[in-house]
Amino acid sequence: MIVKALSGFYYVQTDDGVFQCRGRGNFRKRQIKPLVGDEVEFEAENKTDGYILDVFERKNELIRPPIANVDQALLVFSALEPDFSPLLLDRFLVHIEANDLSPLIVISKVDLLTDELLDEIKEYKQQYEKIGYTVLLTSTLENNGINDIVPYLHGKITVVAGQSGVGKSSLLNSLKPGLNIETNEISSHLGRGKHTTRHVELLSIGGGLVADTPGFSSLDFVDLEAEDLSNCFPEMAELSSACKFRGCTHTSEPKCAVKDALNQGQISETRMKHYLQFLDEIKSQKRRYD
């Protein structure tokens, strides 16, 4: 498996160690670009001079970050500094659902909250757990809640993503002491952090492989059709078959099971508001491109 790509070299992990390889000359002609996470066939006379001969079929592929065969996304959001953003979380979740990944939501810095704000975060936790997502709370205190994440990493390829400046690199450093991934403080002027990772690399953590990468660097909906958006909201996808009209967008159509569930309090008003906002954004993009 390719565990790192850097400056035209691919670093292939095997039972005998890591081999530095280049891609075959005909890969470009065949429009094949090896990605981190790819399972490959290669030949090498030594550890620093190998060639990738073939890239096996992928189960999925992300464009930004460029990585293949991902099992789950570890979404890191902070409760404070920067403030927790359910809108941004839902945007991430749509992209993750569209790529058939399993999300693991981590909300950090909960020890910095007042009792009132902590109750609010716990309400969000219950809301997302009701949908079927796993939500873990961690604090800034040494390893408080961090170790709860480890079992979810075992045997999986995980990509880390989330709010900028929430401490994704710090989290990885806590999960595997000694990594010493570069971290940056949040800019007080912008209220956000800077990306500190510059290439994709799979790190062995918790019995699995974790991508040290900024995660989804683009969160627009260019590749998503309006009629597919509700499939990225599990609570809506579950009800869509009960709508009167096939391809119901859950906006103005009569006898809509999703709107009925909303009126009965079975679907979060906040989630519905975000769905409508994303739907309008997708339609606007399509009109612009047309």
From TrEMBL:
GTP binds at S108, K109, V110, D111, G162, Q163, S164, G165, V166, G167, K168, S169, S170. This is Small ribosomal subunit biogenesis GTPase RsgA. Residues 59-219 form the CP-type G domain. GO terms for cellular component: cytoplasm. GO terms for biological process: ribosomal small subunit biogenesis. Binds 1 zinc ion per subunit. Keywords: Cytoplasm, GTP-binding, Hydrolase, Metal-binding, Nucleotide-binding, Ribosome biogenesis, RNA-binding, rRNA-binding, Zinc. It is an enzyme of class 3 (hydrolase). The keyword Metal-binding applies.
